[in-house]
Structures
1.
Amino acid sequence: MQTQKPTVYILHGDNKLAIREFISKLRQKLGDAQASQMDVQRFDGDSLDFGSLEEACTTIPFLSPRRLITLENAGSVIGKGNREDAFFDLLDRLPQSTALILVDFRNLNPQSSKLLQWAQDHASQSYVRDFKTPKGHDFTRWMTKRCRAVGGEIDPQAAALLADLVAGDTHLAEQELEKLLDYVDRQRPVNIHDVEQLTPFHGQSNVFAMVDAVGQRDGRQAFTHLHRLLEDHPPRYAFSMIVRQFRLLLQAREAIDTQIDPHKVLKVHAFVIDKVSAQARNFSLNDLENIYHKLLDIDLASKTGRVDLDVALDSLLAVLTA
């Protein structure tokens, strides 16, 4: 007797690279690439035509054993009255010939997510997987394993520095690793000098430059670098980078004021500690504590819908550089 396959795959978490690789493997299982292409469709929950999604999910496969339908930002469909009801009704009646992949790039809570609660009630129809980005030393170890998987090596110091520079972004880390391995032609391990020479700060460069401008009360430059950061990254991710930077500054300032070497306190690469320590000297401990508390207030207000992150950050910079 053939085992029933899930008709709904719920993939959630902030590790976009791992989610996309998982989807790619599912596509490969459809068989011939050219034939399967006709049975693959992608939708976005932020701009969804529900009728088109329903038609795609209930159409018989053309040349493949199953149709593979991906709905990114699936959480956008939830909480919209009649559309939410129609959506869950569609999930209930999906045919075995369809695999609907629901993607949410947030870490969903099983206690509050209607999507995960539906999956709990329909265990035989669903497959759920949480893709969390590795943090701290786990991220560095992930990069080392990733490097070996594609036939290369990276020194521990180089991996630690690269982890700091890409700020926990697995997709960006993958791109930088590929560039570094091409540079050394996989003939030797990537070392710290390679990383310093070839890897830009990406979003971190704008964060460092913005903080420099705030320390010098240069509002024009501070706003320029903030807006560049927001152009390159979603507001929530950009905000997390800014919070991380001021947390490091606060730790460095506390160490300096108590005559402790910041290298013994901060759990990041020495290259980053040197830059953070230099920046921390432009602020008093009281200044940094106030800024950090303001950032925590913004975080709470944005999560409860009282403010937009980009507007709140603009307002904060206006106050800090006045």
2.
Amino acid sequence: MIKIKSKLSQNPIRSWCIHQSLDYPWRTIIISLLITLLVGSGVRFFLIDDDMMKLLPKNLESRISWEAIQDEFGSTEVIFIAFGNEGKSIFNPEAMATLWDLTEALETGKQIEELNSITTATRMDNLDGFMEVDDLQPERNLSQEEVNDLKDYLDKNTVIKKRFISQDDQYFLITVQPYNSDGLNLFRDELVTIADPILAGYEVHYGGMAYVTGTMPAMIQDDVQDLMKVGILIMVMVLLLNLRSVPGVAMVLMVIGLSLFAMIGAMGWIYKLTGSDRFLFTLANTSMPIILLTIANSDGVHVISKFFRELRAKHEVRLALGTTMDSLLVPILLTSVTTIAAFATMTLSPIEPLFGYGIIIGIGIAWAWFLSSLMLPAVISLKKWNLESKAITELSIFEKVINKLGKIVLTHPKYVFSAGATIVLIGLFGISKVVVDVNMSKFF
């Protein structure tokens, strides 16, 4: 370490970091992993929220009115179930029996407060000058004549018919309402679990904001997973092309994976400790993992790429790694701090999930810096590197391209500046063409 110290800056903080990673690599790795596991263990408290209303500011007048209505009258959310077969009339004894079975099954649901269908509706007939009130569907098994009589009644009472029958007489419609708007995913899951087996022989269509909202937790999870899979696949391909080292790529992935784990765990812990809805994972948070992936990837790639360049020049792992840490610790720290500060401005947003977004992604960025500055160099120091491999001895495709671009910038600065300014002006003009769309249905 004395030999290395003589060639590095004497800044005490940088010297301490280099000393920990190079002289005590196993201790540094174990402590880093234990702290990451402790923070990441909060993942068990991590919750995905399906309430679209939380995407609106709390002091928004329309939200206040909506919540007041919900408190006074209960849930106004409903799920629509339409079933039938295209090209075939729904007015037949089999379909009526299925409707009866479905209605009875749904009435036993723990999340279901009320439902409306032909089975639960009533009819009023004039008999000998008296008004007779009876069930629209008095029993499960009806003859075709009784079904035809029911159809005739609905044809004469179009207001009732529009509530329960499609215009082409091919589908029944049932509306189902939960006790409250909390946990609509449970309401949606229970309803689908009950309905699907009973309606196995029919085309089934579910609708309504309650259904969409109840589907959101699974949809958000699938969306994030798909984004991460595509992002990691593209990233690995680019890294392999640039670094040409499987261990190097694996080390970058290590930083990314542990940073994501710590970020999600921190979100769970903060929600557990504060109980604040700001730290629930909503539709607004779906970009968090992919953004942290790119930032953590950048930190890791900076360290690995710089290490390879130094190793190419110095041919000594410890000296190359010490030089790498000495030159990158401050730049990566400053980059991380400024990025955290930028995301921290989201805490000023009146939209609650964005407050949590800014705090949590800041924690993830800080963790990526911590891992890439201490744990990653420690892991690199333990690896037996082949100094004769192409990854060390030869420039990568990207390095060659950057070298050529650097020469162009140095030899033609005016042209480069003019081209950049032109692109910026075009972008500024495009700002006036931005359209703000608040249609929630276009979220999906």
3.
Amino acid sequence: MDINFKPLEAEDMARLEPYFQLRSNLTCDSVILESFLWKEYYQAEFAVVDEKAVLVKSFLHGGHQGALPICRKEDMAYYFHLEEQYFNEVLGQDFNVLMGDEPGIEALNLAAGTYDITELTDMADYVYDAESLRTLAGKKYHKKKNHVNAFLKEYEGRYEYRALTPADKGTIWQFLNRWENGKSDDVGQHLEGEIVGIHELLNNLDKINAKIAGVFIDGQLEAFTVGSYNPTDRMAVIHIEKANADIRGLYTFINQQFLVHEFADAVLVNREDDVGMEALRKAKQSYHPIMMVRKFSMQQKR
């Protein structure tokens, strides 16, 4: 089969990005930056087919994993079965999809009994109303607003929010080292994979379409965030958000300011999943999501 997978590199991003905009998709996987940040963790490879679709293959837990094709909705069934054929004939294994969104799976029009489809309850994405997170208006955001006001009062004249550039790479690295050293030793592979992805991003900032910002206090970086934009759904995707947890209101402040300054046109905000971690779940729920975007794994039955 004439499908040539290759590892995702920074130089590929500009060519591949338009394919991600060919259909509505409210998951964090709707933007290419998500794939780039986790490419080492998942050993992700991509193939462009017919200049109409991007197929994705990864290697995790000792086996190959597939993904829903990145293409127009009406082309999904064709390219899904093309990758299925590749898995069956070239790799010699059943096709499986690590994670797929519900509308994407529905677009495949699969025959009954051909796939086991399982909801990944810990991987649902939290999606919010962007204007609510920009303004923090209303009773349900009263505590968040109080945290921000406390931050502004405590650090008046001492803080600076600004977009970050490749020139800030060393400063970001220093912050990440401090942040990581403050975590327990049992953070696990997921966090390690995230840090690897951030370093890969920082090494290629000049080649990648990403929004990055930070908050400095007394000249020292104390919070750092990374996002990208899904123009099809007018949705900001917040991939990374790290802050000094000892500074009251800092997490809420950078969350708010990032949307105000970098994503003023966004209608929705995807703040990704909680990977089953209770502390993350509580934090994400405290911002009052307007929807949870479900994801599913798929396993071929033969």
